[in-house]
Specification:
Chain lengths: 359, 296
């Protein structure tokens, strides 16, 4: 009988020892720091922000195991120094195949209503599911990607801590990365101070100080930016997000080699239309346009100044299209560029919370 | 009674088991007889409480059934749905389709959007803010709780009144049409206010049979001085069943362009953003728009 008791005691001790190794599921709610002049961020009810979820997402964003040959992560084509875009015109996947569109900058994604240049994804979670199985990008089935992650006990524990399951799948990966991306908020540029001042919103002492450094050239450039007879940029780029949520043909081509939005809708009225991107951190996110055709900001200004091509679907808000563009002279171009540089948010691109956590 | 008999039988069965093999097994584990006595007493007490809990559960379930019946008989909340159908004369208007003006110009409308605010009938409020966006939302404008009998006439603003027009556009709730996330380009951060009406179109001004459509119309009406007041003295609501009544306003774009007393010359009057130098055209678009919007 004593033997039986001893066995029982050993079993209890062993059980307790095992329990100590198990991680608990008690996710900690995470509150986003939204700039005061920004709208509230819509968070999907099925993916609330948690400390555990976003930390997992941060690791997964930089996780090479998500690619077929363990050589690429999301962060490969979305680097901090380029405002989380790719300095190359087209990104190259693991099989050395180039894509056909430029990697979009990952800025303020929590407020977007469509994703990818053609808007084929409606939610951030849906967007994240795209690049992993894409044969010209990370080229790996989600089953394999998740299988690799499941072999890592640390990931098993982290998924359990974040979502209460070790039987996770691609949707959990997408949710975690989406949580991380929602924290990537850019709202501390010089432009933000100009916007707040213009809209009579209270400036903090630090912002007051920044406002005092805004130059006459930058303000003159902003006047041009929003002038109908100047650069006329404001119709598509305004507000705290510095963009309007729509698809537009901005006169890049008369004949389209990429139909853009029309590929998704099948509507010929959408031919040559692409998602209007934010201009935040625009000085850092070269090259420009959906196909990365312009290497510099000067090239972009030149396009809107004299390089507009007419077509059936051109945005009617490009009001000087019939003249080839807004015809800015060299002084105006310099002023406009000075304003565009105020959109650089150094705090955003150097934020240590957006850097890799993986060892 | 059957339940009590069963409980007694269950206790007896347990005791018998305790008297035979099971008791020997407990003894072999060095558990004292005192423990067995406690177990018997505990089981008897548990049985008593088990019966009591059973009765409570029966009563609870009975009450639940009654509640469900009450819920199914609750009244339906009356709803009112307002839509806007853009037309070109007698024809329903489709964006990007071609229509011909009195002057013979072919025209394709590409965007029709406007704000409606403070709509109601006297002291009966119908809706605070709604945004019409033909391309994004079709003819739907708003659906709210309300009794159609209270809204046989409607008045309200086309645009956003001054007390709301200059607030921080990020401040309204994310479900509000005034939140900058929901404005779809109808807020001018540079002009600190909302665009009240947007009409955009392409016109073919060269009658050579080649559909060029290279002349753009951009009518953006905003700023406090161009807030319009719509007044519909009769509004007919159609009973759609289930407590829902609906009405559809008509917006006649031909009336806006070919207004009988105030026509728009598409060649010279093709753009306004409500700036100081554009006052004449802005006022014309505003007043023509109000005339073009009618209730059935």
């Amino acid at each position: 009988m004593n033997r039986l008791l001893i066995v029982l005691l050993i079993a209890i001790v062993a059980f307790q020892a095992c329990r100590k190794d198990q991680v608990g599921y008690a996710p900690t709610p995470y509150t986003l720091e939204i700039p005061s002049h920004f709208p509230a961020m819509p968070i999907p009810a099925d993916n609330p922000m948690t400390v555990e979820g976003l930390e997992l997402g941060r690791r997964l964003f930089y996780e090479n195991m998500l690619s077929g040959d363990n050589s690429m992560s999301c962060g490969t084509c979305h680097t901090p120094e380029t405002a989380f875009s790719d300095a190359n015109q087209f990104s190259t996947g693991i099989d050395d195949i180039e894509g056909t569109r430029n990697s979009m900058a990952l800025i303020n994604l929590g407020w977007q209503t469509s994703f990818f240049w053609d808007g084929r994804a409606h939610t951030l979670e849906e967007q994240i599911l795209g690049p992993v199985p894409n044969p010209i990008e990370m080229h790996q089935s989600w089953t394999k990607a998740v299988g690799k992650l499941k072999q890592d006990v640390k990931y098993r524990n982290r998924f359990y801590q974040a979502f209460g399951t070790t039987d996770f799948d691609s949707t959990h990966v997408a949710k975690a990365i989406a949580q991380f991306l929602r924290t990537m908020i850019s709202g501390t540029s010089k432009y933000d101070v100009i916007y707040k001042h213009e809209n009579s919103l209270a400036l903090t002492p630090t912002e007051q100080q920044i406002w005092s450094t805004v130059t006459a050239e930058e303000l003159a450039g902003y006047d041009l930016f929003k002038s109908l007879n100047g650069a006329d940029c404001f119709h598509c780029h305004n507000g705290p997000l510095m963009q309007v949520q729509k698809f537009s043909n901005n006169g890049l081509d008369a004949i389209f080699s990429d139909l853009g939005r029309a590929v998704i809708t099948g509507n010929p009225n959408d031919n040559g239309k692409f998602k209007v991107p934010t201009l935040r951190n625009i000085a850092l996110s070269a090259p420009y346009m959906h196909d990365g055709r312009f290497a510099t900001l000067d090239d972009v200004i030149e396009h809107y100044s004299t390089g507009i091509h007419q077509s059936a679907t051109i945005d009617p808000l490009i009001e000087f299209a019939s003249q080839g563009g807004v015809q800015l002279d060299s002084e105006q171009r310099a002023l406009l560029k000075a304003f565009l540089l105020t959109l650089t948010d150094n705090e955003f691109v150097t934020n240590p919370n957006f850097k890799p956590l993986n060892p | 009674m059957g339940f009590i008999h069963y409980s007694q039988r269950f206790v007896e069965f347990t005791e018998k088991q305790g008297d035979s093999k099971s008791l020997n097994w407990y003894n072999s584990l060095l558990i004292p007889k005192f423990g067995l006595t406690c177990l018997r007493i505990g089981l008897k007490v548990a049985m008593k409480y088990f019966m009591f809990i059973g009765c409570i559960l029966l009563i609870t379930v009975a009450c639940k059934k009654n509640k469900t019946k009450e819920e199914t008989t609750s009244p339906v909340v009356a709803q009112l749905k307002l839509s806007v159908q853009p037309v070109f004369a007698s024809e329903n208007l489709d964006l990007d389709s071609t229509y011909t003006t009195e002057d013979g110009w072919d025209i394709q409308f590409s965007d029709i959007k406007f704000y409606m605010t403070n709509f109601g009938n006297g002291s009966n409020k119908l809706v605070d803010v709604a945004r019409f966006d033909y391309r994004e939302k079709g003819t739907a404008c708003f659906q709210v709780a309300g009794n159609f009998a209270n809204f046989s006439a409607l008045t309200g603003f086309i645009g956003v009144p001054a007390d709301l027009n200059h607030n921080d556009p990020s401040a309204p709730s994310t479900s509000s049409p005034l939140n900058i996330l929901n404005t779809n380009g109808m807020h001018w951060s540079w002009n600190t206010g909302y665009v009240f009406v947007i009409i955009e179109a392409r016109v073919d001004t060269i009658p050579d049979g080649i559909p060029l459509f290279d002349h753009f119309l951009t009518y953006h009406v905003g700023t406090d001085s161009y807030l319009g007041t719509a007044n519909f003295s009769t509004v007919n609501w159609i009973d759609c069943g289930g407590g829902l009544h609906a009405t559809t306003l008509q917006l006649d774009l031909k009336q806006l362009i070919d207004h009988p007393t105030n026509p728009v010359d598409l060649i010279t009057e093709f753009t306004t953003h409500s700036g100081g130098a554009e006052a004449t055209l802005t006022q014309k678009i505003k007043s023509n728009f109000l005339d073009a919007l009618t209730a059935p």
